[in-house]
Structures are given as structure tokens and as C-alpha cells.
## 1
Amino acid sequence: MSLQLDQLVPEHIRLFDPYRPSPPDAELMRRYGLDRLHRLNNNENPLGPSPAVRELLAGIEAGIVPVYPHGDSQNLREALSEVLGPDRSRFLVGNGSCELISSVVKAFCEPGDNIVTADKTFAVYEWVARFSGIEARLVPLTRDHGFDPDAMLAAMDGRTKLVFVCNPNNPTGAYWNEATMRRFLDAVDGRCIVVADEAYFEYVERPDYPDCIRLLDEYPNLVVFRTFSKMHALAALRVGYLCAGEDVTDVIGRAHVAYSVNTPAQLAARAALLDRSPFVERTRAMVRQGREVIRAACAELGFEHIIGEGNYAMIRTPISDTLLQRKLLRRGFLVRTMTGFRFPNWIRVSLVERPVLEEFRAALTSLFR
Ligand SMILES: *Cc1c(COP(=O)(O)O)cnc(C)c1O
């Protein structure tokens, strides 16, 4: 029997080049002969999760496993409402915020529609649009590596359903302040949905950085995404959420798979949210120190770098990023290559504990001095 796969597969799937995750740590360690691997590639928080969450996870009984989770994460949404303000009906919880990107595209886009975002940002917006058969309009960043509001407005047309604004931007750390965000939302004037992806919200310490959840009542077309993967250090459990007006949340919920968030994830996210320990403050202090270490390393080596908000830094390297990735792996550091993100020969490095970054700095210095 022969299978005519090409005749079954839509062109937008045939032409799509999927993301290839890095191999498991144990395999990398075997391949590179390492007894330790420092993961600097995924913006994870090595201090976490917080002690309260650790305790909760340690106490989870296998007896909860035969039972389906809450299909709509009700208890977690109640905690979100308690801590953040909006009614629980305005929150939607997903299997990581990546699932919510997919749900929002499914809810609003049909063939012929388009989305608008930046060319050098979190790639999942573009990928989900493209493998869904939806055009992704990618607008170049400004010279200071931020989203360009005027160029994005110019890229919009009558078929633009969604605009994704990564605030602060992964990987550059640039952000729109509240005035810029408001000016953009005023200019969009409700013509399409604007998603503010605040995956790094808890890391930003700038007074002019907008908390978009507080803008929701003024802008009914605004959708705010957050995640438990980054600051709260629950990346393995896959929990993210969105907050929007009740009508918009209801529409996105129709395109969203119920039961996609498992029980340990719901419980841990709720505990992380309600935890008032100094964990978040300790993480912010770690990241502030990390920025200094990377700045000093780049100054010493004469490397161009981009460091903004968020727990990551970008470094421009004089050799190919894939070659440098391999050299750094041999020394026990896994970094993110950025050529695929339209930053040829840049690497992105997560800002982790100071001693680890000092070792990283020594490794870089020994490679390039
Ligand atoms: C990490 C990240 C996410 C979230 O990922 P999930 O783990 O799927 O919640 C979303 N947006 C940006 C910009 C990120 O960097």
C-alpha cells in the first residue's frame, strides 16, 4: 500500500520547518563528557520553585492521578481573581501560554486573515500563525531593539485580527512604557485584538512599565498573557493564563481544549501565586547581579550586547553561534543560538546565579582572549 502523503497535507504544513528542541540533558552530558550542565538556554529560574511550592509538590498523592483535573482550572482562576482583581470568568488557563497563543489564533483567524508582530521576537506567534495557514506580518524592530508601534500600525489592514506585542521583548528585553502602550491601543482603536505577552512581567522593575491587566477596562480588545514558567519556575508543569474582557475570554475559551492543564500544575500554580515569601525578590536580585556579570564580560571582550528587562542577555559573538554553542557545551554551558531568530551569530544567555555566570564569563574569556 502506498500513501500519497503530499495529497493529504496542506501546503502550509508541508512547507513548515518545525522547531527542534535540544536533546535531554543526560544525552548532552554523555555526548560532551560532562558531569554538570548549566542550562542558560531557556530563561528558567534556577532558584525555584518557591519553598511553599516545593512543599506542596512533595505532598502530592498518587491518588489524585486517576481523576481528571478541573476542566477549567476553577480554583486557580479564583486565586488569580483574588490576587490580580478581575473576575474569575475573565481568566483562561492553558498548558503553558504557548497553548493560549494557539487558542487565540484559532478563535479569531480564518484563511485570508493575518497577524502582526515583530520579526525578532518570541517565535511561537509566527509559527502558530504559519502552521495554521495564517499570514504572519513581521515588522522590523526599532534601532533600540523594541517593537515599532508606527510600523506595526502601517502593517495592519482590514484582515488583521491579532497583534502580538511581547512586553518586554524576548530576546532583546526592550519594552513599551505605559504611554507607548496606550498610544498604540488608542491608534488601533478596537480594529483588532492586541495581545500583550507579559511572560516576564514579574521581572520588570521599571516604574513606567505598564501592568496591562489594569488597562483592560479601558481597552476591550486587549488580551494579557502571563506564565508560571519563568519567574515562578514551573516550566515543567506547563501553566500559563490570559486575562481579557469577559466576552473576549469567552470567545477564546470556545477554541481552547478543556482539561489541558493537569492537577499538579493547577495546584502548584495556585500555591506560587499565593506565596508571599521573599522568593521573587531573591530572584530579581539574582538577575540584577547577572546583568552586571554579563556587562563586565562583554566590556572586557569588546562584545556587543543587548541587555534590557527580563532574565536574559544577548551577546554578539565573533564566530558562528552554532560553533560557539558547541564550544561552550564542552565547558558545561548550554546557550541559545539566535541565528534562527534573525540575530545571526548572537547568543542568548539566561541570567542565573552569580557564581555560575562568573564561570561562564571565565569560559568565554578563555575562548576569546
Ligand atoms: C517563555 C515564554 C512564554 C511562555 O511559555 P509557556 O512556558 O508556554 O508558558 C511566552 N512568551 C514568551 C515571550 C516567553 O519567553
## 2
Amino acid sequence: MGLQHLLPSTILSLLCVNILFITESQAQLGNSAVINISPTLSNAAAASTMDSSFLGYSLEHNAVPNFAKSQIMVNLMNIWKSKTGVLPSVRIGGAAMDKTTYVPNFRTQPVMWVATPASEYWVGPSYFTLVKNYFPSDTRITFGLNLVNSTGNWSNSVQFAVEAKKNIPQVDLFEIGNEPDLYVGSNQRKKGWTGKEYAEEWKFVANRVKEVLPNAQFQPAVFASSLKDGFDLSSLIAAGINRNQYNIPSYSLHFYPQSACSSIPNLNNLVDHSLLGQLLQKFNPEIAAAESSGSRFTLAESNSVSCSGFNGVSDTFASALWLVDYALTAATKNIERIYFHNGPTTPYSLFIPRAASGLKAGIRPISFGVYFLAEALALPAQGSTTKFLVSPLSVPDDQSDIVVYGLYSNKVQKPDLDVIGTTTFVYTTAIPTTRAIVHTDKSQTLISVSTKMIIRSVSTSTRSSTSTRIVTVTKSTNTTKRTTVRMTSTTTRSSVSSGKTTIWRVTLVSTKTTTVTVPTTTQSRSTSRTVITSLSRSTFWTSQRTTITKTVERATPLLSTSYTTYTTNRAVTSTNTKATIKPQPTDIGDFPMNDGIFLARAVILNLSPHNTSDARVLSCRSCAGPSPAGYGSTGERSSTSVTLKGFQPNHRLKLIRLRGPGLNAKSGITVSGIIFNEDTGTLKNTAVPESVNVDKTGAVGFRISASEAVLLVDEKVV
Ligand SMILES: *[C@@H]1O[C@H](CO)[C@@H](O)[C@H](O)[C@H]1NC(C)=O
Ligand SMILES: *[C@@H]1O[C@H](CO)[C@@H](O)[C@H](O)[C@H]1NC(C)=O
Ligand SMILES: *[C@@H]1O[C@H](CO)[C@@H](O)[C@H](O)[C@H]1NC(C)=O
Ligand SMILES: *[C@@H]1O[C@H](CO)[C@@H](O)[C@H](O)[C@H]1NC(C)=O
């Protein structure tokens, strides 16, 4: 689903849901911006997937022989593929498609211009061989057919289509007619010929092509985007040019933000982000129409300035920054692809294939923008099936020159928040491998699926327990005590006198002190406390499944399928450099701990204009002339300190810069140090990225100069 289906108010609320906003930029900090990007994409369905072959090259039929005499185009295409895994698509036709006649017995050369009876291009059979042999076999080619010349009910265009499809295996789509919305203005059709008449003619030709090639796929419209007189996609779809009737993977319109035919192109306007947004708005109903009929919307011819480009604008570093901003904005609108138009010597060409018209072969500044985009879309690993979702962006009011795009991996994954320690594990894992081998007449597909157990994390915990015991001890003792004892003795005496007997009883009382022994019992209580400390370690495992699909071209036709499954036991050593202790929630704030669609990359553009006055970089080897002198910006080149929050805490990011001496520069441009070989279009070296650390709150800081682009890559989000 594309954003353009939604009402403006819904888009606003979506922007908030995706939380890509810039909180503030405080004046007292000078040039600084604090930017919050949502670490995860909560509404992945609302974001657009950016195609790995987002970039395409567009050429005129008659220019193909010039391009094919040099390896530069194929080498540039292969650099893109080495990063993204897919070749850029190629569209061949342009305005020349409506001047082309297929001449089966014309054998002297692939294409020739003839002046009489009418100015046209003759194309012979060797044209097909040339196209087939020049482009790699996995190139997808869109091939243009003549709609203007209706002689014999367009039988020549139908024959051209049939022969092209038969002889060029890379042909994928057909276009029929270039910019038909301009036919009346250029006297190719009579006044009053509208989108309605176009639709009838298009269907007539497409039906005849379909009779011979039932599986033919078409890319209709090909409008110059005037969007008048019924030349719009809703009208076309209503007129029957739709998926119900034809194989239509995509509709194409053309876009140039400036024109060299009707005004004087302006370098500053090229890097004006809000102007770009306004210009692209007119495509919203067209994108919606294409999608609602089940097709995609493509800009199959585009560049900075229409009518071949403009020296001093199209061939400057400004065009590289523009290309990056334009591609990412278009991707957020769910535009499928942009094909950049090239002529053998035109000012807007991305490169000059070989010396001609006083120009030398070479790589133009805009191609550095293409390389930067390839780094932004680079696969996290070879064979990876990851695609990147591009989140809508927003520009802060007071930092309107800073533009930010978030690229999210479409794979739902766990956050990786482990922070401390290094541990090496050796374990044995069973790796079941199923290999399906399908032999077909053309190609062989190998699919291998492997599963391995990997350690996600190890956590160590310490537990203490305390126990208390009370013991009672009983003790007996004898104590001695002194005591006084009273003793009595009684004696009886008698005497006789006078016949009377008297009897006395005498009682003697005496006291005596003595020592006695007294037994005693005492009880005593004693408390004992024991502390037991135990250490435990738990290991969390996760299984990782890898599917690798490989297609190999076969020479000999074969038709059979076989599967083998086997399991091997392997000892695996894994060093977990970020390991054992989970950060405290207080450290990482509200960073999500759950599985999600995580931020993998961010592109930040500082589009504040800066010009150089260094005359040495105002010209380029393949440029027609230097940028005018005397436009150097005064004062030091400004830079902005950016704090960007949304990456995973404690990760280390790769930082890649698209740099040039100034917007007006034509040389001295690089992407983290890369240098092109201007004779071949290959790279002389590889990029040397900087690296920056994300702090424990998920924030990363870096500086970005005026007129510069930065790409941040978290290689752990795959
Ligand atoms: C139109 O096509 C016919 C062949 O069908 C060709 O002979 C003629 O020259 C073409 N006219 C123009 C103006 O290209
Ligand atoms: C062109 O097509 C129309 C409609 O199908 C048909 O009537 C006419 O005979 C055709 N003319 C030629 C030259 O094939
Ligand atoms: C205390 O005295 C008694 C009687 O003489 C004797 O049996 C006992 O063992 C004595 N106890 C101690 C702890 O001396
Ligand atoms: C940069 O230089 C170009 C000429 O190359 C000029 O048109 C443009 O206005 C200059 N821009 C700024 C911001 O100085």
C-alpha cells in the first residue's frame, strides 16, 4: 500500500506513528540538530519497500551503438550489482523509438540515420545482436516501439517487437510510443488527438503484438507528464489499458525538475528539497491509479534538466546530492524505479562512454550519487534476501536544510542489546541441509536451506541465601552455700530431798555454722547465621535458518529434479564479543526489547548550499566546460552537529560520506575515498568508511558539512 492512498490528514498521523521527526534545534547550540528516528517501524505496511534495482539507465535506440563501444556502462552496472545483488534495469527507446523503422535486409550497421524520404533511423538485425551481447544476461530491458508511424497498421512496429523479443533474451517490457501527450504539439498527430485516441491506437498495436507474443509485457503511458487532455493514468485505465486486458507490471511517466528548453536552469533550485517535494506531488493521483489497478508506477525517463541537460547544473556535484534526495523521496512515495536518461555527449549524462564532440570519456559527478545510493541499498551479506523499507521523512522548521530518511530491514528480528564481555563458545551443532536441484532447459536453480543453532546470549546470575539457627544449651552446676544450723539437747536430772523427788528437765540450745552443697541448672541460647552464595549461568539459543537460491545458466537443456537431504555434525566456535550482561532498563531508556522491524540505516543530507572558488575543481575530464568562476561561498563552510537517536544502544555504525568541494564543483568528489577509473568505469579502490559509536541511550553524534550526505549503516541489523 502506498501513502498516496491516504487522505492528507491520515498521512500526517502516519508520520507521527512512524516517529521520524526532529525534536528541536536549539539556537544557542549554533548549527545543531537533534533527530529522533523510531528504532522500529510499527506500521511496516504503510512504508514503501525500495527495490534493489531502484536505479535504471535510459538510452535512445540510436545511441546504443555509441554506448556499446565502451565498457563503462556495463562496469558501472556491475558496481551497483556488487553492492545490491541486482543489476540496474535498462530502458532503450526514448524519443528515437518514434523515429525507428525496422529494416530486415539492412545489414551494414546496427542503426543508421537516413534523411529521405523522411528523417528516421533504420535498424537492422545486427542491432539485436549488439544489444544482446553488450548487456549482461540478467539485465532487464524495456524496449521502445514506434507509435507515430502508423503505416500499414503499425505492422513494422509489430515486426520489430517480435524480432526483438526473439533475438534479445533480456527484453522484459515493451513501450509503445514516447511522450504521446506531446504528439499534437510536435505535429505528429492532428489537433484534437487526445488520451482517448492514444488509448485506441495503443491497444491496436498491443493487441497485434499479443497475437504473436501472448506473454508480452507492456509499460504503457510513457507520458511527458503534462497530465492534460486525458493523458493521465486514471483515464488510461478506464479506457482499458489495464491489468485485466494486458500484462502491465508498471506504468511510466517522465520527470525533469527543470528544463533547458523553456527557462534557464538553476543550480541552487536543484538541491531545494521542498521544491522537489512540491514538483513530485503531481504524481500522487497517478501513483494511486497505477496501484489501484494492481500495477506499479515508474519514472522510466528522468534527469535533472529536460532537453539534454544543462552545463553547470546537470554536470556538477549538486546533481549527485539531488539524485540521492530525489531517489529516496520517490521511494517513500512507492515509486518503483527511476531510469536516468543519457546521451553519448549530453550535459546530463551520468558518464561519457567514449570521446566524442570534443568531450573525453569519463565519470560525471552524478555517478557518485549513484554509488552512494548503492551503498545505502547494499545487501547486509551476500545472498541476503533483505529489502529495505523507507520511512517517510520530515524536515524541522528551523533546520530545513537537513533531510533524513530511515531505512528499515524488512526482517523481523531481535534487538541486540548485550553489552559487556567476551566469551568463546565451542559447541556441536547438527546442520541439516536440503538441496533441491532443478534442471530446466535454460537455467539451473540451487536452493540450499541450512539451520544452525547459535548462541543468542548467556546470562550469569548470583544468588545469596541466609539461614539462621538457634541452639539452646542446658548446664548443671553445684554451688556451695553457708548456713547456720540450730541444735538442741535435752537432759533430765533428779534429786531426792525430804522424801520428795524433784525432776528437772534441762534443754540446752546451741547454734553451729556449716557449709552445704546446692545443685543448680542454667540454660543458655546461641544463634548461628549461615550465608550461602550460588552462581548460575544460562545460555539462550536461537536457530538461524539460511536459504540461498542460486541460478546457474546451463548450456545443455535438461529436465529433471532431485533433492538430497543430509545432516552433518560440526563443531562450531563462536566468539561472542558483546556478551553476557543485559543492560539495565535504566540505561537504555524506552528502547524496545521485543522483536521488530529495526532501523538498519539512515541517510542524512545537509542541503545548505556551499560553492567552492577553487578553479581546479570547477571542471571535469568529461564535462563540456568549467562552472563559472566567482561563485565561491564566502566564509568557512558551515557544518551541523547532528545527534540522531534510534539506533540500537552500544552498536558501532559504519559512516559513509558523499563529499564534494561545493555544489558547483565538477571534480574532487568522492564517496568515502572511492576513485573511478575514468577510462573504464571500474573502481580503483574501495570505500573507507568512518565508524561512530551509538551510546547506551541509542544516540549517535556526527558532523555533516553544508552540501554533503551521510549514510549510517548498522551492519548487525540484517
Ligand atoms: C514509416 O514506416 C514505413 C515502414 O512501415 C517506412 O517505409 C517509412 O519510411 C516510415 N516513415 C517515417 C516517417 O518514418
Ligand atoms: C488496418 O486495420 C483495420 C482494422 O482492423 C482494417 O480494416 C484494415 O484493412 C487494416 N489495413 C491494413 C493495410 O492492414
Ligand atoms: C553435685 O553433687 C552431687 C551430690 O554430691 C553429685 O552427685 C553431682 O555429680 C555433683 N554435680 C556436679 C556438676 O559437680
Ligand atoms: C553556486 O554557483 C553557481 C554557479 O556555478 C551559482 O549559480 C549559484 O547561485 C551559486 N550558489 C550559491 C549558494 O552561491
